[in-house]
UniProtKB/TrEMBL annotation, chain A:
It is found in: Membrane. It comes from Cyprinus carpio (Common carp). Residues 66-100 form a coiled coil. One of its GO terms (cellular component) is plasma membrane. Pfam families: V_ATPase_I. This is V-type proton ATPase subunit a. The chain crosses the membrane at residues 367-390, 410-428, 508-529, 535-558, 599-621, 709-730. GO terms for molecular function: ATPase binding; proton-transporting ATPase activity, rotational mechanism.
From TrEMBL, chain B:
This is Ribonuclease, RNase K a. It is a multi-pass membrane protein. It comes from Cyprinus carpio. Belongs to the RNase K family. The chain crosses the membrane at residues 52-74, 109-129. It is found in: Membrane. The keyword Transcription regulation does not apply. It holds the Pfam family V-ATPase_su_f. InterPro entries: Ribonucl_Kappa, RNase_K. GO terms for cellular component: membrane. One of its GO terms (molecular function) is RNA endonuclease activity. Keywords: Membrane, Transmembrane, Transmembrane helix.
Length: 772, 142
């Protein structure tokens, strides 16, 4: 359980395994992802390594793979070209069939017309003029732009002894999609058999396509049906071709990915083998790994499995060795804690077995963010967004954008930030810059009027601003609002005076508490590393210094909040504090409680006394122990060398201690002031939110006519877009950054060393993920 | 009938006609599913991409919820929203109907909010149809 708050205990293990089983064993370890291989040949360059040939081979293979990809693609390309050619011919046939189809439909009308003409001819002239066999008709399709010229040529040829009808083919969307041009259907009726050749020649010249059109209605219907069935068949063939093409491409893509990952794994294995030592008999490989102590059994099992797979008879040997080297820092994380650990490690990876601030950060970071963000409407939008990202995390990872990767990595952080923001929004009573009145306000205006209070009707006409006086009975009910800021402050014009004072004091309280917590964590570190001397030389003086000055400041704030004061004569806490430091006690200064002067003088003297304790005691003790050992050692000659080696100069120790002391003492003041950014950003957010409401949404609300609702629709859209971009994204990023800075600098410089190096195990999962 | 009420009824009427049109379009869509390359193409009704449609849907949902709640708060004469009500000096004059004037103004703004919420219901429905059409088109290509 202690591993939750500090990094895991690591051990250095020597592995011995046979050369034949090397590949399988390391492959198993790679799948496990729990061991980090130490470089046993640090002096060898890349070219001198044992398996340099194999690594080169793997790189070759990668190149060949891409070449193979090329060759596969070449084959694919040829196939695709054939498919495309067939596709084109099929399309051409389809277009021809469509033309025939439209032709057949249009000629229906023409034939009816001709029959009518013949019939009328028949009836009016009483000449029996049967539809003669030598009256010829020709039907065809021609491009629309060529039609006028075509008509003129026919006129010159036949001197008007012909009937020509034409109609445009309705350009359906399908035709347009397949890239056809506008075409016209035409049909010519001429007398005489010999003219067929002439017409054919003319049509050839104009590149019109002629189709034989059957004379009778029955035949035409049959032809129409057959054309329809042919078209359906063609369409099906085209669709199948397209599907086949798509299938071929996807199958090839899958294979390529598989080969790629295999080659990467092999390359990683050979790279790892380069880090190991081969012994003289060339049969045994020696490796040194860092491994968590609790996972030794798992590693052993994996090695046994690997050696069994390779068929070797000898099981690998694990030998734990003691070492003075610093192991890497390994913090076990799950999906939820991963993000928080990442933001701590970004500043500095913790020293081995130092206390890990990440578990505390899970709560304090979103909380400090929320103090600066503080709006329940915006918090709700942020929470819903985070919930959506969490539910869609896998499908969003495919976008492979830098920004989306960051958002997906921090999705749980955003969720917690949103939830905490709803909480602080309820405390500030701020939702899109408006307050909720859930429990009933504690302030009442009516008692200010006559006969209870001083106001009359004329007072309302004279003054623009009126102040509610809480000492008039009934104005203030005596019980504060149940949870959060009273909603009456939202419509008060001196809202900011009240809220600024409240938020500044709250920021100081939160800041000093956070820093005291940091100092306490240093105590935990001292206990774990058994530096008991440091507890009394560092932790206790630091704690006393902070508590006597800044702890007392918090006490003053809380005390002043709890007692009843007249606002005209209440002392300012800032002035009280300044006067305390300057020992300035004049009789006209108002004090908060009896005995304050004595207590304050005592506290300041205590704090000042702690400074030389921090500065001088520890170096002095080191000096004394050195003197003692030097007396004992000076008798033996050879120990001089050791003495000389162990000696850091006293000057360095003093300087180091002085820097540390000054950093702590001055840092106390500057860091406390730094926490005032909690107030500043919260004020900025509230003001931006109010400005957005007043300048955008209120304009729509104040229009009372019927047009008001339409304006409201448009303005609400603008309000939503601006809220998301300015208040959520910009202010969110800003508050995130400042909360992070408060953690990294003001909190962590009380206890965190951060000089370790990260545990980077051989893991195929992370390898493939990063490559993708 | 008061002016806002008339407007509300006319908007509801237009919405019902529009929804009937959309229902008939959807019926045709089922009879000629886009996967069979028939002449009838529903793509002509698609006028925005998938991202714009999704944004429109999210905005409409937010608009409906927030404007409906604002409407409720205005019609219950919440004091916190006093600055959003367009009252003038004349409404505040001493008289028997001063309070009632302010309440009427509150109600007017509340009705405006409700109408805007109804319009957002329509926009949301439209965006939802666009999202569905986009999904169908995507399905067709794959």
């Amino acid at each position: 359980m202690s591993s939750l708050f500090r990094s895991e205990e690591m051990c250095l293990v020597q592995l011995f395994f046979q050369t034949e089983s090397a590949h399988n064993c390391i492959s198993e370890l790679g799948h496990l992802g729990l061991v980090q291989f130490k470089d046993l040949n640090p002096s060898a360059t890349a070219f001198q390594r044992r398996f340099v040939k194999e690594v080169k081979k793997c790189e070759e293979m990668e190149r060949i793979l891409s070449k193979k990809v090329f060759s596969t693609f070449e084959k694919l390309e040829q196939e695709l070209r054939e498919i495309n050619r067939n596709h084109a011919t099929l399309r051409q046939n389809l277009i021809e069939l469509m033309d025939i189809d439209s032709l057949l439909r249009m000629t229906e009308d023409f034939f009816e017309e001709v029959l009518e003409i013949n019939f009328s001819f028949f009836s009016f002239n009483f000449i029996i003029l049967p539809p003669s066999e030598d009256s010829v008709f020709v039907a065809g399709v021609i491009k629309q732009e060529r039609f006028p010229a075509f008509e003129k040529v026919l006129w010159r040829l036949f001197h008007g002894n012909f009937v020509l009808r034409h109609a445009e083919i309705q350009a359906t969307e399908e035709l347009q999609a397949r890239g056809a041009v506008k075409k016209d259907v035409f049909i010519i009726f001429v007398q005489g058999d010999h003219v067929r050749e002439k017409i054919r020649k003319v049509c050839e010249g104009f590149r019109a396509s002629l189709y034989s059109c059957p004379k009778t209605l029955y035949e035409r219907k049959q032809m129409s049906n057959s054309v329809m069935t042919q078209m359906e068949d063609l369409r099906m063939i085209l669709r199948r071709t397209e599907e086949y093409r798509a299938g071929v491409l996807t199958r090839a893509a899958e294979h390529v990915q598989e080969w790629g990952s295999k080659v990467k794994k092999m390359k990683a294995i050979y790279y790892t083998l380069n880090l190991c030592n081969i012994d003289i008999t060339q049969k045994l490989i020696v490796a040194e790994i860092w491994c968590p102590v609790s996972d030794l059994a798992v590693v052993q099992n994996a090695l046994i499995k690997g050696s069994e797979q390779s068929g070797s008879s000898v099981t690998p040997v694990l030998n734990r060795i003691q070492t003075q080297q610093t192991p890497p820092t390994f913090n076990r994380t799950n999906t939820f804690t991963e993000g928080f650990q990442a933001i701590i490690d970004a500043y500095g990876v913790g020293t081995y077995q130092e206390i890990n601030p990440a578990p505390c950060t899970i709560v304090t970071f979103p909380f400090l963010f929320a103090v600066m963000f503080g709006d329940c409407g915006h918090g709700l939008v942020m929470t819903l967004f985070a919930v959506w990202v969490i539910s869609q995390a896998e499908s969003l990872r495919k976008w492979k954008n830098e920004v989306t990767d960051v958002v997906i990595g921090g999705r749980y952080i955003i969720l917690l930030m949103g939830m905490f923001s709803i909480y602080t929004g309820l405390i500030y009573n701020d939702c899109f810059s408006k307050s909720f009145n859930i429990f009933g306000s504690s302030w009442c205006v009516r008692p200010m009027f006559h006969p209870h209070g001083p106001w009359q009707n004329e007072t309302l006409h004279e003054y623009h601003h009126l102040q509610l006086n809480p000492s008039v009975p009934g104005v203030y009910s005596g019980d504060p609002y149940v949870f959060g800021i009273d909603p009456v402050w939202n419509i008060a014009s001196n809202k900011l005076s009240f809220l600024n004072s409240f938020k500044m004091k709250m920021s100081v309280i939160l800041g000093v508490s956070h820093m005291l917590f940091g100092v306490t964590l240093s105590l935990v570190n001292f206990v774990h590393f058994r530096k008991f001397q440091d507890i009394f030389l560092q932790f206790v003086p630091q704690l006393i210094f902070m508590l006597s000055l800044f702890g007392y400041l918090i006490f003053l704030i809380l005390y002043k909040w709890c007692i009843t004061l007249r606002s005209e004569t209440a002392p300012s806490i800032l002035l009280l504090f300044i006067n305390m430091m300057l020992f300035d006690y004049q009789s006209e200064h108002v004090l908060l409680y009896g005995g304050q002067k004595g207590l304050q003088i005592f506290l300041v003297l205590t704090a000042v006394l702690m400074v030389p304790v921090l500065l001088l005691v520890k170096p002095f003790l080191i000096y004394r122990t050195r003197m003692k050992t030097r007396h004992q050692v000076s008798r033996a000659e050879k120990d001089n060398v050791i003495c000389f080696l162990l000696q850091v100069s006293m000057g360095d120790i003093f300087v180091y201690q002085a820097i540390h002391t000054v950093e702590f003492c001055l840092g106390c003041i500057s860091n406390t002031a730094s926490y005032l950014r909690l107030w500043a950003l919260s004020l900025a957010h509230a003001e931006l939110s109010e400005v957005l409401w007043r300048m955008v949404l209120q304009v729509g609300l104040k229009i009372s006519s019927g047009m008001g609702s339409l304006m409201l629709v448009v303005l609400f859209a603008a309000f939503a877009v601006l809220t998301v971009t300015i208040l959520l994204v910009m202010e969110g990023l800003s508050a995130f950054l400042h909360a992070l800075r408060l953690h990294w600098v003001e909190f962590q410089n009380k206890f965190y060393e951060g000089s370790g190096y990260k545990f980077t195990p051989l893991s195929f999962d992370s390898l493939l993920k990063t490559q993708q | 009938m008061t002016k806002p009420r008339r407007l509300l009824y006319s908007v509801c009427f237009m919405l019902s006609i529009y929804s009937k049109h959309r229902l008939s379009c959807n019926k045709l869509l089922e009879r000629y599913p886009a996967g069979s390359n028939t002449f009838w193409r529903m793509a002509s009704l698609l006028f925005c991409g998938p991202k714009l449609a999704a944004c429109g849907l999210v905005l409409s949902i937010w608009g409906v919820i927030m404007l409906a709640m604002l409407g409720i708060f205005f019609t219950t004469h919440s004091a916190v929203l006093i600055e959003d009500v367009p009252f003038t000096e004349k409404d505040m004059e001493d008289g028997p109907t001063a309070l009632q004037n302010i309440y009427n103004l509150y109600n007017q703004v509340g009705y405006n909010c409700f109408i805007a919420a109804a319009i957002y219901v329509g926009i949301g429905f439209l965006s939802f149809c666009q999202v569905r059409l986009n999904k169908r088109k995507e399905y067709l290509v794959h």
